[in-house]
Amino acid sequence: DLYRKVFVFRKNPSDAYVVLRATLEQPLHNFTVCLRSYTDLSRPHSLFSYATKTQDNEILLFKPKPEEYRFYVGGKFVTFRVPEGRGDWEHVCASWESATGIAEFWLNGKPWPRKGLQKGYTVGATAAILLGQEQDSFGGGFDVYNSFSGELTDVYLWDTGLSPDKMRAAFLSLRLPPALLAWKSLSYEVKGDVVVKPRLRE
């Protein structure tokens, strides 16, 4: 249980990462991924990387620059332009629905205009799920200059699109529906220089 704890990625750039284990019964036709990050990086960095053997960017949350997030599904991406962070925690949720190809992006509890992405696609179930690095091959192929440095917490993955109420609940750290990956019951393995520490402030 990582409640009120964070992963601190101490080095910049870094070869460290955290492997997350989720049991996916079947491929994903809908999903929501949420996490909270705290960093002063201005270079590109990966936040959440989900790769299958056929597609290294099956699901990817990537921040190429301080005022932009990229959300990938099946190797294609949409870009969400955001105000440059003011040196504070940023909470992001991204959800996707195969039937409509609608991609939703929420930053700090507020929705951005929805975009279209990979209508009819299916996300593979046999996945390597990593925090802190961007996979260019299944479970590897890292570029340290896309690595994350800073603090990560409150990582979740659901096999549904969350309702607006639940998106806001995730931002506020309120009760959430059962998830494939849940911060409060996370199965993970640290690889390299990552330290689990209490959160400094709420």
UniProtKB/TrEMBL annotation:
Assigned keywords, A-Z: Acute phase, Calcium, Disulfide bond, Metal-binding, Secreted, Signal
Q: List the disulfide bonds.
A: C34-C93
Q: What name appears for this protein in its UniProt entry?
A: Pentraxin family member
- Cofactor binding: number and manner: Binds 2 calcium ions per subunit.
Chief place where the protein resides: secreted
Task: Name the domain of life.
Answer: Eukaryota
One GO MF term attached to the UniProt entry: complement component C1q complex binding
Co-factor requirement: Ca(2+)
Q: Report whether Lipid biosynthesis shows up as a keyword of the record.
A: no
According to its UniProt entry, the protein's GO biological process terms are: acute-phase response; innate immune response
Please report which protein family the annotation says this sequence is part of: Belongs to the pentraxin family.
Instruction: Record the organism.
Output: Menura novaehollandiae (superb lyrebird)
> Where does the Pentraxin (PTX) domain start and stop, copy by copy?
3-202
Gene (UniProt): Ptx2
